[in-house]
Amino acid sequence: MSRKTLIPIGPYHPLQEEPELFKLYCDGEIVRDIKWETGYNHRGIEKLSESKSYDQVFFLVERICGICSTSHPFAFANAVEEIVGVEITDRTKYIRSVIGELERIHSHLLWVGLAGHFLGYNTVFMWAWKYREPILDLFEMITGNRNSYAMFKVGGVRRDIEKSKIPAIRREMGVIRKKLDLLTGAVMDDPVIHARTKGVGILTRQDIIDYAAVGPTARASGVDIDVRRDDPYAAYPLVNWKVITAGAGDVFAKAEVRLLEMYESASIIEQCLDALEKLEEGNIALKINEIPAGIGTGRAEAPRGEVFHFVVSDGSNSPARHKIRAPSYTNIATFKKSCIGQTIADATISLAAVDPCYCCTERMAAAYDSSSGEKILNANELIEISMKRTKELRKSEAGHE
Amino acid sequence: MDTEAAINKLTGKFIDEIAEVTLQKGKRAIVTIRPTALLTLSEYLFKSEGFRFIIASAMHTRRGFEIYYHFSLDADGIILSLHVILDKEKPHIESLSNMFSASNWIEREMHELFGIDFLHHPNQEKLLSEGNWAEGVYPYRKEFK
Questions:
Q1: How many contacts, defined by CB atoms under 8 Å, are there between A and B?
Q2: Domain B3-91, CATH number (from 2.60.120.1060, 3.30.460.80, 3.40.50.1820, 3.40.50.720)
Q3: Which of B58, B70, B129 has the CB atom closest to A297's CB atom?
Q4: Range A79-95 average pLDDT
Q5: C-alpha triplet A207, A208, A214: angle, nearest 5°
Q6: CB atoms A308 and B25 under 8 Å
Q7: Whether the Cβ atoms of residue B112 and residue B88 lie closer than 8 Å to each other
Q8: pTM reported for the whole predicted model
Q9: Contact A82 B127 (CB under 8 A)
Q10: ipTM over 0.85
Q11: Which domain holds residue A32?
């Protein structure tokens, strides 16, 4: 009889957006079942929001996720502006989209780097993170912060993108395109990366529909959804861009979608800058005195997929109910489909493929034998297993040549 | 399809189950239905009309426990929310999780935070607290004077 081993990943592990515990039940090398526990860091943000004024809620929701910290204020602003019934100025729309797309670039670069690390390509990790750095510098220049930019408010934004700042952003878009060519070439043409990611962690179209997965996870399985196009907001209907999709649904397809999306983001940013140059500076926020009673639903396409905010206002200073759905809430549940039947070495990258943000620091993760409770592997060792597999593939690849 | 056409189609088919329709600004609509009709209407939206389940938002009000089931028709950018009002004392409703897995977590969450019972849920265990909270305490319930 084979021994079933329980391998916990988490609760604090760099693979995950929030502390969660995944229990992989393994039979030899193969993952047979997966269970999870959440709520290790339940902050009660929805409840907290009911005790904050609308202006304060922006700062609160910005702290839901450290990586895509503008996507929640984006969706919340859309929801509240729907209740008020205002249309923001064109200049504000362009500024919001610039921030949203810069964030997509830095978030996707972060993912590419970490995916490289898990596969044993530490050079990719170092490079991708190096290229990400100037994007954060742009944020600092525009907003004063490298993260949690505090840019959004009801009816507008808090800071303008003045003409003097535009050349620096434009220059960086040129640079990032060249770097992306390099990265995309390295990933798309590498036979070992193909071997490690193609056919691994496959999610079918039906899985996506069943779990209502969103963002690049859905688009990599051929489900063509993107809130920016489907339910247009900010400047997205005013510029030309296309939604990137792929069909295979494996880890490679998810990487492909993210890499190509960054080109689109750069193009959106450049078009927004063109428009900003033509528009007069200033006039970046409407004066909104009261939030009337009503119901608002706001959506925004975060780097990981659709962020959904549902706000009920009773006419007072703070929301009566504020429901938030982050994209990882639906995407993480797909692990049940993508991990089972994989080897442990592939489980790491299958989990990472949906990009549950990596903002939590690794603190504990260890593998225990389910019968004796004896510790077998820790998180670093798990990643090492994955890296070793790549090494072996590289060796055999070199042997063929 | 625009929002009005989608609503007309729905009301044409299920007129007896629908109590109220609120068309909102943009492509949003809230359809208040009888709680017993939730499964039928959700099945129609999900299977026949191609709507995607976004999430459900529960809320405790003076009327009782209210749930908005948000569905999105991505091709047209429509959000249609099925709205039910449940009993004040023993709130319960059929689970949607046997139709699609997307509602599994949120129903467990609502069960835990509001104490709403989801009938025939495949696994109505606690999602957030893992048994670390006191039994019978529902943090998102409100006290009305």
A1: 79
A2: 3.30.460.80
A3: B70
A4: 95
A5: 160
A6: no
A7: no
A8: 0.90
A9: no
A10: yes
A11: 4-41+340-400
